[in-house]
Amino acid sequence: MEPVASGSSRPDPTPSSPSTSAPPPSRYESQKRRDWNTFLQYLTNHKPPLTLTLCSGAHVLEFLKYLDQFGKTKVHVATCPFFGHPDPPSSCACPHKQAWGSLDALIGRLRAAYEENGGRSDANPFAARAVSIYLREVKESQAKARGVPYEKKKRKRKPTVRLDVDLTSGVVVKDRINGDSPAASATVLPLG
Q1: What gap in Å lies between CA 89 and CA 84, rounded to an integer?
Q2: CA dist., res. 106 & res. 28, Å (int)
């Protein structure tokens, strides 16, 4: 038994063995907690201060625009000579903003954190239509400003197989459907 400061001979209630400690949170979970705390701090500092229950999609948009001042992505304005150029030859006075991908990931983490912290999914301000529209507009404007469109990554499709069974002869013909000609890729298999 370890001595207790109060003079009692009870054992220390906190376990001292490292094997009982929880594993450290993942990088995603740590970032989600930091983002959540940052948003709550933003609500506290808001004029007038806001509570989470009064927060709406409009407040989320204010938060995203507030974050632009800390951005590192140069977004050329329409009057800039480098507007639409992916690799400008020199610097310009255009503002730095948060990159669309960063904002999109942030909203995803905050959306999850809201529900994990007791918020109802049907009242989630991070899932508001206005937030989705804003993110789409940021994505499109940043793509225009840098002259390189964002392209959705195409997923590779698995080959499709079709089986034709001739019950009179007992032959199975296996064709690949994904663009190959049936004659070139057909395989005849005996049935049974």
Answers
A1: 12
A2: 11
Q: Which two tokens stand for residue 45?
A: 């500092």
Per-residue pLDDT tens listing for the chain (192 residues): 444 444 445 555 555 555 678 889 899 999 999 999 999 999 999 998 898 889 999 999 999 999 999 988 888 888 888 888 878 788 888 888 899 999 999 999 999 999 999 989 899 999 999 999 999 999 998 888 877 666 666 777 777 666 666 666 666 556 555 555 555 555 655 555
Radius of gyration (C-alpha) of the chain in whole angstroms: 29
With H, G, I as helix, E, B as strand and everything else as coil, classify residue 38.
helix
Please tell me whether residue 95 adopts helix, strand or coil conformation.
coil
